[in-house]
Amino acid sequence: MSKQEFKAESKKLLDMMINSIYTHKEIFLREIISNASDAIDKLYYKELSEQKTGLTRDNFKITIAIDKEAGKLTVSDNGIGMSREELENNLGTIAKSGSFDFKNENEAKEDIDIIGQFGVGFYSAFMVSDHVEVITKKYGSEEAYSWVSEGADGYTIESAEKDGHGTDIILHIKEDTEEEKYSDYLEQYHISSLIKKYSDYITYPIQMDFEMRKPVEKAEDAPEDAEPEFETVIETRTLNSMVPIWKKNKADLTDEDYNSYYKEKFYDFTDPVCHIHTRVEGQITYDALMYVPSRAPYDYMSKDFKRGLALYTNGVMIMEKCEDLLPEYFNFVTGVVDSADLSLNISRELLQHDRQLKLIAKNIEKKISSELIKLQENDRDKYMEFFKTFGVQLKFGIYNSYGMNKDKLQDLLIYSSSADDEKYVTFKEYVSRMPEGQEHIYYACGETADKIKALPQAEAAKAKGYEVLYMTDNVDEFTLQMMNEYDGKTFMNINASEFDLSTEEEKEAIKKENEEAKIILDVMKETLGDKVNDVRFTNTLANYPVCLTNEGDLSIEMEKTLNAMPLGEKVKADLVLEINASHDVAAKLKSLESDETKLKEYTEVLYDLAKIISGLSIDDPARLSELVCKMM
């Protein structure tokens, strides 16, 4: 039979499709298997509607065969098959989708789940093969036909021989080039991995024969030292799972089922902190199964890490990592979303409309938040396991958005506190037990909770009966600045000069003392120069002799954090040297009013001691040692 030309400007369209539409050549197998599934669906639906075929779901399968010597890969199905006219319409016209027509004709009916939409998936075969044969027989027909093409030049259709109904797609795989190793598509392990990756949840078994060497049982009279004999046997294996776990009823699944799936699919050897299994129906219908890992992925802090959930439609994987489904601050969540309602582009690799995706993403974000809150309330130990690994990410979610995501994330934050540093507390819990009249949420920052507890201001707050939150992550204070307040209560750093728990009488008394000691304090300020903004006496230090506080928005801890970054320009907090007016050191300083030299030396020592208490490094340890020895 003479060769026929494709319709619909086939040469340009086929060339564009092969070279431009698909990102990865390996997608061809997904497309062909999806077409085979569609063909079976059509016949299965025919039985459901007419009940004349006598076929059940167990009768159907998709078969993969590899012939390395001939360089052929064959995908076969026992679906509805095609007549000669259907071959002409479906394969002779690029972008004509028989599946799409079938779906439209039966859109009001249930129990129909057709994957194909665009009619171009079949032609992806030409990305990896230079010669494609299709042998097909329509269910109920005695005639079989062969469709053969080598690409855009056209195709031939002629009568053929075929046992049973269905379709065989025979790909003659291209020779290897420097750019592409096409022979990989003739390796069973590679084909198996592609099926597992893209078509694991096709609802019919995808089978392939494997040659196995099996030991032959020894004869009774065989010598003990006789060499073992082997025979080659054929083992048929089903390569796909068929029913995804997220499509199963939650009541039928155990934690072990969820955890086993997680470890197998996401290559982790530890159980996740929790799983989130949900089905949503409404404006858009989807199933989702998500996991919160108990440990960060090995590449979590690298530029190679990619967030996102695997995106499926009708059990066929469309994207391995769909970033749009997860906000950055939930980037640690992994899992899958499966929806039949997505509008895909012609390659089924991208979405045509982001409105659908945004709706799913919004729902998923709320679901993750609510499940984490539930975990926090019901299993604090498990929540702490999660928070110690990924809590910083939540804090950055508030900081990086300039506080726009505060309402979404603030109740997920949790800190140790002076109430019980072994137990962590949320802002909600802190506010619920604030004494009447307390206007601020008090906190302090430092390298560890123990170092924060040792701060003079922490001791003073505790003496007054106020709870202090201990913040040990570098991002903590930046996060609080973006939050500004929680439930109407503003945040107060106890290391700030504004932190003052004195009564009005005490404030008046210390003000008077500073005025009387103006000469001494001026000398001390002059001695320290621009190292501090001010030097003053205070009555807020309990038993400590001296401390450094900050004025303005830049705290001591923020200064340390910013200066540790490779930004070039260094920053400096506006510091105040505060001296305990009730301590012996204050009396000593007052006694040195007439000895300016000694007063300056004591000032240097006190400043260095205050820096040490605050966790800052001193500028000249040798000078401090010299002065201390001189005083001794």
Q: Short description, anyone?
A:
The protein is α+β, with helices and mostly antiparallel strands and 632 residues long. It contains 19 helices and 22 strands. Helix 8 (380-400) crosses helix 13 (476-483).
Describe the model.
The chain is of the alpha+beta class and about 625 residues long. The protein contains 19 helices and 22 strands. The strands form four sheets. Strands 5-4-3-6-2-1-7-8 form an eight-stranded mixed β-sheet, with helices on one face. Strand 11 (about 310-315) and strand 12 form a beta hairpin. Helix 8 crosses helix 13 (about 475-485). It starts with 9 loop residues before the first helix and ends with a helix. Mean pLDDT is about 85; it is low at about 95-105 and about 110-120.
Task: From the structure above, extract its key features.
alpha+beta, elongated, 8-stranded mixed beta sheet, single chain, 632 residues, 6-stranded mixed beta sheet
User: Could you give the distance between the termini?
Assistant: 112 Å
Helix count, DSSP H or I runs of 4 or more residues = 19
Q: Let me know the largest β-sheet.
A: 8 strands, mixed
Q: In terms of quaternary structure, what is this?
A: single chain
Sheet with most strands: strand arrangement: 5-4-3-6-2-1-7-8
Give start-end ranges of low-pLDDT stretches: 95-103, 108-119
The structural class is: alpha+beta
Beta-strand percentage? 15-25%
What gross morphology would you assign? elongated
